[in-house]
Write a sequence for this structure.
């Protein structure tokens, strides 16, 4: 892969002058009108799609509103290169996005610039992010470490929330009720108060009993976006949100014939759920200040300061050979971030971005053991805390000498308080042989820093963190073509990707049988992403997406197909608009089979396999009298049965220990009424 990067650089030296001499045109003339969709996140500058070397996915607020998806994960599921995973799809199940076969902690998710990934766990739980607050989503695939640092190995998901619009008053309230005694209430309102000062507010409450025992959830969130908009000279936004969730954690679906089991008079599990007592709670808040200014035509200035507070609480109960126990655990993360960059345009066709980012992490872990009755064990409390920080300095230059070709090169120097320094380069090349075609190439180095949980988890005779961990790192290549046809009525994209990863962090037993994280494994993948968007034709629009991923993991003993990674994924989306205000959307998703090896690093073939599955979702919406909207939403319309992960279960009545699965939810239906001003 390193040879490919060097080879591309040599090609660029010859392609640039050759194409420009052949075209005989100057930089910036005649923008590619068929690829003029604006993307901000790929280069941290406002660029047309034709000028972005990465494969991207852009989702508008209209697409979000019309989708049958209930969560951000469902909305993004099975888009080209994207794999949405949950532990059984119960009410409080965390939702992770895996891009191109990489782990969930390799995807960085940002809301208005603030990272919402869990600092202690790594992945972002996208099920927490309410859809009604989102104006636009940009998914940038490929290495993003140069601009975004740790955790952007597979790509970034950048979410831009709603802002007020001048001379408009936004107001919408909705209420819905559905299966599993679920209800949802939401409201949003935004406007400019006076002059250049405005705001946008959102609030949501969602509650469900869940589709099996102990799968209930209560979710509440609120957000505010305050803006001061003085045009190019000064634009300030202050965004804040708060999320509180309380939920059950039902564990695996118990095997057929399992009888309810009681411990000290309390039911511990039953025929539906492996756990009736385990609970979780999330208490999150984010704040971010963004300041942008264009004091001259040739320079943009940006400054961002952000604060994140995340507290997770887990209540766990267990039983072994008739003896019970458990624990209560609080993990608290606070992150302070500061970033500034300068975007320079020294001459026509050239662009130079220079910036720096600082992050400080505070982490606390408190644990209390429980006895068989669920009471705290005196003197069992343990506490651990740590602080770490990182500084990144980056620069990325772009040059388009003519309309036919553009090059990009960047580098980041990362300095981490634990593992030291890392230099991360990236290269890109874009060729536009005609206005409706973009050939893209990007190649970059990526890395992922160990989390505080990995480094500092409190030590006992059985479990321990590892302060000697190294970061995961590797290279990411993707090459693709984007083609618009029939006056933009058809858009086709095809991308090949290839990445590798070494020093992969895996939790497992060390030489002394202490369970701890270690830099053991390697991983790699290659594959294809294909997407087609057709329409609208005759009030119909169709989009199709297919991803093939050949992912492998290399342990100390064997090289094998990557755990839980499907080779084949497909998504089809059909939308119909009627002239009398009716909209109908049908979404079909296919996920291929997934292998599982348990904790055995020596297995070359899977111990168990999750079967492939297909789900169909439907949303029908009718607008009446301009302001009223009635909708019916059905998820998993045909009640498809599928599983998402494996876990072990021990029947205390028989002593049998078996592998069981986390089941996905069956059919669910919700009817909703909304008023929009």
């Amino acid at each position: 892969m390193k040879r490919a990067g060097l080879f591309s650089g040599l090609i660029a030296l010859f392609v640039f002058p050759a194409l420009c001499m052949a075209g005989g045109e100057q930089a910036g003339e005649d923008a590619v009108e068929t690829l003029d969709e604006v993307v901000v996140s790929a280069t941290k500058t406002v660029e047309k799609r034709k000028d972005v070397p990465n494969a991207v996915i852009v989702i508008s607020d209209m697409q979000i509103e019309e989708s049958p998806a209930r969560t951000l994960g469902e909305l993004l599921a099975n888009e080209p290169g994207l794999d949405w995973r949950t532990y059984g799809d119960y009410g409080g199940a965390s939702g992770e996005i895996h891009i191109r076969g990489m782990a969930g902690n390799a995807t960085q998710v940002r809301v208005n610039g603030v990272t919402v990934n869990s600092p202690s766990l790594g992945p972002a739980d996208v099920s927490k992010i309410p859809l009604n607050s989102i104006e636009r989503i940009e998914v940038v695939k490929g290495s993003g470490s140069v601009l975004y640092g740790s955790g952007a190995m597979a790509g970034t998901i950048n979410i831009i929330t709603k802002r007020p619009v001048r001379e408009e008053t936004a107001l919408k309230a909705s209420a819905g009720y559905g299966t599993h005694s679920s209800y949802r209430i939401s409201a949003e309102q935004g406007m400019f108060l006076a002059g250049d000062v405005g705001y946008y507010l959102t609030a949501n409450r969602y509650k469900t009993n869940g589709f099996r025992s102990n799968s209930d959830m209560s979710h509440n969130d609120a957000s505010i976006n305050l803006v001061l908009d003085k045009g190019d000279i000064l634009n300030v936004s202050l965004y804040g949100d708060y999320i509180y969730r309380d939920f059950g954690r039902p564990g695996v679906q118990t095997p057929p014939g399992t009888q309810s089991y009681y411990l000290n008079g309390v039911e511990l599990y039953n025929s539906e759920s492996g756990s009736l007592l385990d609970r979780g709670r999330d208490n999150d808040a984010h704040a971010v200040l963004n300041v942008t200014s264009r004091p001259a035509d040739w320079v943009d200035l940006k400054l961002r300061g952000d604060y994140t507070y995340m507290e997770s609480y887990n209540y766990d109960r267990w039983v072994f050979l008739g003896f019970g126990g458990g624990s209560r655990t609080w993990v608290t993360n606070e992150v302070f971030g500061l970033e500034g960059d300068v975007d320079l345009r020294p001459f026509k066709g050239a662009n130079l971005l220079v910036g720096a980012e600082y992050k400080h992490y505070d982490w606390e872990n408190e644990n209390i053991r429980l006895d068989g009755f669920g009471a705290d064990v005196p003197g069992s409390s343990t506490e651990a805390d740590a602080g770490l920080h990182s500084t990144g300095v980056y620069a990325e230059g772009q040059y388009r000498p003519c309309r036919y070709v553009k090059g990009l090169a960047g580098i980041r120097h990362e300095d981490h308080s634990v593992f030291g320094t890392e230099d991360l380069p990236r290269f890109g090349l874009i060729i536009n042989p005609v206005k409706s075609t973009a050939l893209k190439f990007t190649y970059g180095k990526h890395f992922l820093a160990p989390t505080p949980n990995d480094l500092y988890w409190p030590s006992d005779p059985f479990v321990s963190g590892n302060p000697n961990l190294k970061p995961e790192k590797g290279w990411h290549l993707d090459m693709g073509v984007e083609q618009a046809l029939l006056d933009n009525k058809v858009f086709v994209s095809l991308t090949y990707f290839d990445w590798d990863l070494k020093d992969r962090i895996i939790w497992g037993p060390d030489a002394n049988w202490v369970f701890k994280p270690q830099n053991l494994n390697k991983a790699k993948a290659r594959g294809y992403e294909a997407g087609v968007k057709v329409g609208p034709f005759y009030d119909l629009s169709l989009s199709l997406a297919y991803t093939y991923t050949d992912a492998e993991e290399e342990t100390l003993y064997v090289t094998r197909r990557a755990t839980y990674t499907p080779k084949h994924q497909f998504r089809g989306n059909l939308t119909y608009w009627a002239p009398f205000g009716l909209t109908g959307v049908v979404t079909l998703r296919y996920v291929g089979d997934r292998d599982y090896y348990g904790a055995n690093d020596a297995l070359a073939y899977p111990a168990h396999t999750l079967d492939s599955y297909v789900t169909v979702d439907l949303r029908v919406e009718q607008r009446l009298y301009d302001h009223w909207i009635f909708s019916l939403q059905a998820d998993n319309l045909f009640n498809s049965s599928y599983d998402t992960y494996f876990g072990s279960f021990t029947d205390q009545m028989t002593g049998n220990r078996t592998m069981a699965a986390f089941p996905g939810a069956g059919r669910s239906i919700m009817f909703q009424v909304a008023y929009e001003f």
